[in-house]
Amino acid sequence: MRVLVIDPDPARAALVAEGLAGVHPLEVRRSERFDEREAIEFAPDVVVIAAESPDRDTLESLREASQANPRPVVMFVDRSEPGLAEQAVRAGVAAYVVDGLAPARVRPILDVAMSRFALTQQLRGDLAKVKADLESRKTVERAKGLLMKERGLDEDGAYRLLRKLAMDRGKPIGAIAADLLAFAGVLKGDAS
Amino acid sequence: MSGLADLKLGFIPLTDCAPLVAAKSLGFFAEEGLDVSLSREASWATIRDKVAVGALDGAHMLAPMALAAAAGATGGLTLDVGPSLIAPMALNRNGSAVTVSIALAEAMRAADPEVMTEQPVSARALARVIAERAGQGAAPLTFAVVFPYSMHNYELRYWLAQAGIDPDRDVRLVVTPPPRMVEQLRAGDIDGFCVGAPWNAVAVLEGLGEVLISASAFWPGGPDKVFGVTEAWAHHYPDELRAALRAMIRASAWADDPANRQDLIDLLARPEHVGVAPEALARALNDEIVFHRDGAGLPRREHALWFLSQMVRWGQVSADADLEAAADAVYRPDMFRAAALTVGPVVDPAQVFVDAPPQLAPLFEGPRFDSSLAKRYAAGFSIGRARA
Q1: Which of residues B218, B246, B262 is at a domain's end?
Q2: What is the annotated signal peptide range for this record (chain A) (predicted)?
């Protein structure tokens, strides 16, 4: 089976393609954009497309054209699997299949695509959290430095003061540190 | 959460998303007790699917897209559960235009300089260019529209056919998302397109295209986008729907007011909204798009029937389909009126609450559309694919 993956996000497309290569004897091609000539040449049985790709409307119009002039791609409608299409929409994936292809054969493909989309989202979330943590640690270091300088505290004392402020106010220590730095900036005339 | 809920509404980067964007940014939704988040989407198909499964509560939509499923059109919903879409509000009138590449405009002027000075201009010069190209064995010209079920598709087809050009045989019609029209014109992949604002103006300002006819010349006051939700959602959340409509009615009135023009342009120009140069946005806003006045927000049955007549004309919908039933199932002026009743003085009662519609303006070179004879009208064109 030939699967064409269209995704403006190349990293995610690679992840989907890699996942698909493992489940089936199939040929997977990925592209950031849908190109009709390329698609005709590759003749995919299934097109998996990210919901955020504007090319969906182009793909959809091929189905429309199939009335007068038979075209290979029709939309994936699987009556035997209620909720699957809905799941796919929520995951941000749409699938178009060649007319006549058994829906059961598409299921594993869509499952892989959805799981890879979820994985990407989770990885992005983790990355954002790591960045935020790192940012927060830097802020705490700077706030500590400020307290050490202004209040004559040692490093441990400065940290304990920040932690106490955080506990008293029920806020994360990073947020307290950021507030402290911002107010110190105002007092020094950095902002008005 | 109690009372009015959080709403997630989708839009496509086009000037006519203004009622949603303004209602959010000016706090009209918030004043109605709604916490609305806007989601910029990349395709109409995704808008339709997300609204259908409830991933969006409502969205900026192509009116014919909302009508297509109800009329039994073949390119219907992805989902077999097929929740019915309804249009309780029209977002704007006019706004689209036909633009061709500079090279094609020059070729048209060379082929028939006189026709090209007509106002509004017809496609007769284009017909001559097409005939010349066919004689030379050149490839057919390619035109892009935004979706099979769109005002843009019907407007371009109608305008071409009036000049004797068969849009299915004499040119190649493709679908291209609005933000990609200009780059495809630049790349020479397409020779022209019909798209909504601001993309025609973007092509002109970049020196790539020439606008031949705008919707307001094609059909003054003609319909364009709607606000769409599923019937089930409207049934479960009538208060939220009314509140959202009230906020968008106020936003539409605000967007129409010339005093707010610059603020609207600045708002739409932001990258999270339409994200194009203010000059490009200004053009259609100055003398083309109407959001509110003349009862523009009322989803009119006659407009739905015109769209449906064009679906029949081009073979998207069977001539046996019950067009009136489809129009009445989707277009819901009653819901608009229920919201307009409580919105205050921004609504002109004579435009919104009077049943007899003001007579529709005639379309380009064609007969005036009589909505009671939609099928006869659909079959009455010399170029068309109406199928029984």
Answers
A1: B218
A2: none
- Whether residue B1 lies inside any domain: the answer is no
Q: Do A75 and B78 touch (CB under 8 A)?
A: yes
Is the pLDDT at B126 greater than 50? The verdict is: yes
pLDDT band, very low/low/confident/very high, at A126 (cuts 50, 70, 90): confident
Write down the mean pLDDT value for chain B: 92
Q: How many CB pairs under 8 A join A and B?
A: 89
Any domain includes B321: yes
- pLDDT per residue over B271-313, tens digit each? 999 999 999 999 999 889 999 999 999 999 999 999 999 999 9
Q: Find, among B104, B96, B126, the residue nearest to B190 by Cα.
A: B104
Mutate to test the interface with A, among B40, B44, B46 (most CBs of A within 10 A): B46
CB-nearest to A89 from B49, B176, B316 is B49
* Residue B388 within a domain: no
Residues on chain B touching A57 (C-beta within 8 angstroms): 43-45, 146-147, 175-177
CATH topology for the A2-124 domain: D-Maltodextrin-Binding Protein; domain 2 (3.40.190)
* Chain B contact for A107 (CB, 8 A cutoff): no
Residue B77, CA distances (Å) to A86, B51, B162, B197, B382 in order: 11, 11, 32, 26, 31
Instruction: Provide the H-helix boundaries in chain B.
Output: 18-25, 28-31, 44-53, 63-70, 102-111, 124-136, 151-162, 178-187, 199-205, 215-218, 231-236, 238-256, 261-269, 278-287, 301-313, 323-330, 333-341, 349-352, 374-379
**pTM of model > 0.95:** no
**CA-wise closest residue to B158 among B316, B363, B303:** B363
B134: CATH: 3.40.190.10
pLDDT in tens, B59-112: 999 999 999 988 887 554 444 445 689 999 999 999 999 999 999 999 999 999
Instruction: For CATH 1.10.10.10, list the domain ranges present in chain A.
Output: 130-187
Q: Are residues B208 and B329 in the same domain?
A: no
Is the residue at B384 inside a domain? no
Residue ranges matching CATH 3.40.190 in chain A = 2-124
